[in-house]
Amino acid sequence: MQQNKKKRNIVLGILFFLPVAFLLMLYPAKHNYEPLNIVYEDVLDIKEFDSEDEEDIMFKDHITVLGFLGKNPLQNVIAASNLKELVYDKFKGFKKFQIVIVIPKGTEEEVKKLKSEVNTYEDLKFWHYVYGSEEQIVELYASLKSQQQLNSNLASENVFIIDKDLNQRGRIDGREKKEVEANKPAFGLYSYNTIQVDDIKNKMSDDMRILFTEYRQKRKGKFDDSNTRRANDLKESNE
To answer: Which residues of 38-50 are buried (b: 16+ CB within 10 A; e: fewer)?
Structure first.
């Protein structure tokens, strides 16, 4: 009887200490993640763009997912729906998060139809549409690091991550672990394709979490800015 009690205490002790030991193993590593790279700096803000309800929308002091739906936004309803379901729904509870969709002036009526397709039954209060002239949209896009051009309708399937300081975030080396092990050529990941579900469901979601972790640690005074790799050489190569 006493031996059974002793065995039970040993088992209970193991069950108690194993999770504690696991957490202690994780603790030293949790501050050693690699921050999300700054791939370009000085992205233009959107103060001069018009917004719905005359609300002031800007990138500064926000973590922004930026998209371009062009002159015929309804043609990009799949991209918008993927963005809503796989990005907005996942991160809408994070502080200072927003999605900003840039579209040309004159598309307001089509945007109303797009909203009925995307919004379903909820009010997307952190999802903003802003309207600009063609020149403003082209100029904004030119301030981003991108491997693709806007199409003739001023639209793109790709979205961009902009941090609170108007820096564009992404990956200087966009290879996955298997690609690195296979010695595949390095490539930059500057934006995320909204049609390729894996691109935004995995790569973009991971990168957004890393960025939110960075700002959370900054608020707690635990983030070392020297760890952030600034890609000035990439910026110069784009000029």
So the answer is: bbbbebbbbeebb
Spatial contact of 38 and 168, defined as CB atoms under 8 Å apart: yes
Q: Report CA dihedral (79, 82, 85, 90) to the nearest 10 degrees.
A: -100
Name residue, tokens 């961009």. 160
The answer to whether 211 touches 169, Cβ cutoff 8 Å, is yes
**Distance between CA 128 and CA 131 in Å, rounded?**
10
d(CA 58, CA 166): 10
- Nearest CA-CA partner of 99 in 118, 112, 113: 118
Residue located via tokens 């600009």: 132
| Cβ atoms of residues 192 and 168 within 8 Å | no
Dist. CA 83–CA 125, nearest whole Å: 15
Token pair 């972790």 is found at 213
- Does this model's pTM top 0.85? My answer is no
pLDDT in tens, 35-73: 899 999 999 999 999 998 778 899 999 999 999 999 999
What amino acid is encoded at 193 in this protein?
N
E strand segments, 24-85: 37-40, 50-51, 63-68
Strand, coil or helix: 181: helix
**Quick one: which H or E segment has residue 141?**
helix 134-142
